[in-house]
Amino acid sequence: MIDSPLLLTATIIPQSSELLKLLDPKVRYTQYIENLVRFITNSPFRQFIFCENSLAPISDRGHIEGICHFYGKEIEFLSFK
Description:
The protein is an alpha/beta fold. It has helices at residues 25-42, 61-71; strands spanning 6-10, 47-52, 74-79. It has a 3-stranded parallel β-sheet with strand order 1-2-3, covered by helices on one side.
């Protein structure tokens, strides 16, 4: 098990940009959460830091914390803009 935390960044509600292909916050949220769960369940990391930089609410936070607990892992959520 790797003791260094894995830092995952997210922008769920992006500013409009011609460079982005995916702007829908619901789709972006789903993809970020699915990948976060995949990292928790399938990676050797024990600690995770999830930084969301558009102040989007993480409604699945309790569920994700439960998954971490089940797998003996830890997570910290940071949100800012």
